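Translate sequence into structure tokens.
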Amino acid sequence: MAKKMWAGRFEKATDKDVNDYNSSLPFDCKMYSQDIEGSIAHSQMLAKQGVISSEDAEAIRKGLLSIKEDIESGKLTFDSDAEDIHMFIEEELTNRIGDAGKRLHTGRSRNDQVALDQRLYLVDEAGEIIELLDTFVDTLIDIAKDNLTTYMPGYTHLQRAQPITYAHYLTAYIEMFRRDTDRLGAARDRANVSPLGSGALAGTTYPLDRQAVADDLGMNGVTLCSLDGVADRDFAIEFASACSILMMHLSRLSEEIILYASQEFKFYELDDAYSTGSSMMPQKKNPDVAELTRGKTGRVYGDLISLLVIMKGLPLTYNKDMQEVQEAMFDCIETIKAVLPPFTGMMKTMTIRKDRMEAAALEGFTNATDLADYLVKKGLPFRETHAISGKLVHYCIENNTSLEKLPLETLKQFSEAFEEDVYDAISLKTCVEGRSLIGGPAPETVKRYLDSI
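Result follows.
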């Protein structure tokens, strides 16, 4: 077992079970690139400040880049005895370049080092997730533009309520996912602050230039309290919260895809490439992508709750409990990155059954409100017209028909205010196009919205 770099204080070697239990290398090895990037910036700053020689800084830089190259080529594998990625890289560096490698950690603690690595990793991964989400939103926008006049029922309580278009329906999710993008971007920006220079908790007496390191790493600034710099992981919690809200929106959309692809609705026909079958029932076509997404939402929620519970009772500053933050953060990121590509493909390839959507809108008395509004425009009070429209709906149900199919003489039995123009007033086209306020379902309104984003 390799000797620990902090072993000077100890007379006994670490017990093997404790070493295995304590090691974070199996998961924090994901951050090797960020660890190397941060170490290069730190060593370059040390040289500029005269803390180490420029020759040592250059040897460190070249050594770290060679380690990165060897890790990525597979030439260098991670040592299972190493305590974490930070110690592994530093020990490997020292083996390669000698004493210069021992100078890398000057003015630095693993406490501020790991906080930096986590922030850099989150910033990099958040950028990738935002790109995937942008692609998904672009897909929804394209589908919406092709369905500006595809009529369907809007629902409340899962009961048919008023007619809308499929484009209008999609804009609801487009708005949700655009807010998710904003939240992810804001979380990324707040994470993109350097804690390096906080040391173990109280900074250092070396003349470090913290801002120079942050600038070199493309970060927005530095943490303003050394205690906070190493003690908190709220940047990971905030990011997991944004991811949880994103997954909630994806789960809601998944639930509707599952419903709308069922034989009871038949609004969607999922592409074969994004469906699965049954090992027993040959007729089955299962919406597994949507169902898995709905299920994985709970997983991301679990990551968020784990982060909150890990941090909720910790005294300042660093505690070993915080090692557990990494696995929850990694799992949250990996789950989101696994969900978005197949979900985007499923949406892009599924067939929209426009005929079924329109039939559902016609059959569900979704124009009953417009019938009441028609009578209001004829001079009747709304509460009276609401009752008349309700009675007509009841009549239609009893006689297995619909409002637009009722003869004028039948309508007049309920109110003499009805005239021939009622049929145009309660057509799906009129009902939808008449709702042209900002945010409404009128095709021109939705088109203007889609063209503006």
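Note: The two ends are 58 Å apart (CA to CA).
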